[in-house]
């Protein structure tokens, strides 16, 4: 649904994971072998990946200024506790955060991506569309960081049309 370019760096992984579920149709690419392979998952990893995905979606909604009822950012905090990071220094002296455990585990890769994005100031730009039937993740590149929809031509147009029709109905 998103007509925007993908998020930069490690945020692209998070954006891709959140967008494995199309809320409008119910299609979940984590149900397919190709969808799981894209994230290095086995069929047994799928329930945990779904839990991680929805916790990430909640944070993306919060970044966009929404407080989803019955959902909390504490869920993501709890999940990331299982993916500790450590500081590594390369031969040139550059420091980076790396997973302390299995570097290929999805939660570890997500934790490292969040840490890097928080450090460079881009984490809060990963948002979820405010349309309840969408909630697609997107990276907000607007100068003021105030984008509300994944696609102005789809979700934005629908919201503006609903507002217009409501005003017309109230005026009559």
Description:
The strands form two sheets. A two-stranded antiparallel ribbon has the order 1-2. Strands 3-4 form a two-stranded antiparallel ribbon. The longest helix has 20 residues, at 152-171. The chain is mostly helical. The protein has six helices and four strands, in the order ααααββαββα. Helices cover 42% and strands 9% of the residues.
What distance lies between the first and last C-alpha atoms, to the nearest angstrom? 34 Å
Unreliable stretches covering 5 or more consecutive residues: none
Number of strands: 4
The H-and-E topology, N to C, reads as: HHHHEEHEEH
Strand content: 5-15%
Give the overall form. Answer: globular
How would a textbook summarize the main sheet?
2 strands, antiparallel
Instruction: Give the helix level as a range of percent.
Output: 40-55%
Return Rg in Å: 18 Å
Give the helix/strand class.
mainly alpha
Mean pLDDT over the residues: 88
Q: Please count the helical segments.
A: 6
Main β-sheet, spatial strand arrangement: 1-2
Helix/strand layout:
Layout: H1 11-18, H2 33-37, H3 46-63, H4 74-80, E1 85-89, E2 95-99, H5 106-120, E3 126-128, E4 137-139, H6 152-171
Antiparallel strand pairs: 1-2, 3-4
What's a concise summary of this model?
The longest helix has 20 residues, at 152-171. By secondary structure, the protein is mainly α.
List keywords for this structure.
single chain; 172 residues; mainly alpha; two-stranded antiparallel ribbon; 6 helices; 9% strand
């Amino acid at each position: 649904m998103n007509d925007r370019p993908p998020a930069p760096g490690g945020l692209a992984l998070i954006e891709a994971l959140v967008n494995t579920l199309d809320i409008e149709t119910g299609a979940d690419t984590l149900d397919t072998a190709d969808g799981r392979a894209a994230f290095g998952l086995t069929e047994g990893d799928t329930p945990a990946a779904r839990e991680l995905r929805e916790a990430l979606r909640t944070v993306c909604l919060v970044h966009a200024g929404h407080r989803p009822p019955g959902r909390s950012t504490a869920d993501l905090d709890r999940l990331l506790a299982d993916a500790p990071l450590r500081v590594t220094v390369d031969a040139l002296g550059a420091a980076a955060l790396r997973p302390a455990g299995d570097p290929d585990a999805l939660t570890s890769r997500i934790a490292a991506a969040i840490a890097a994005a928080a450090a460079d100031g881009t984490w809060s730009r990963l948002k979820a569309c405010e349309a309840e039937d969408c909630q697609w993740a997107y990276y907000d590149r607007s100068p003021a960081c105030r984008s509300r929809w994944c696609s102005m031509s789809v979700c934005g147009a629908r919201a503006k049309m609903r507002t217009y029709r409501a005003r017309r109905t109230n005026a009559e």
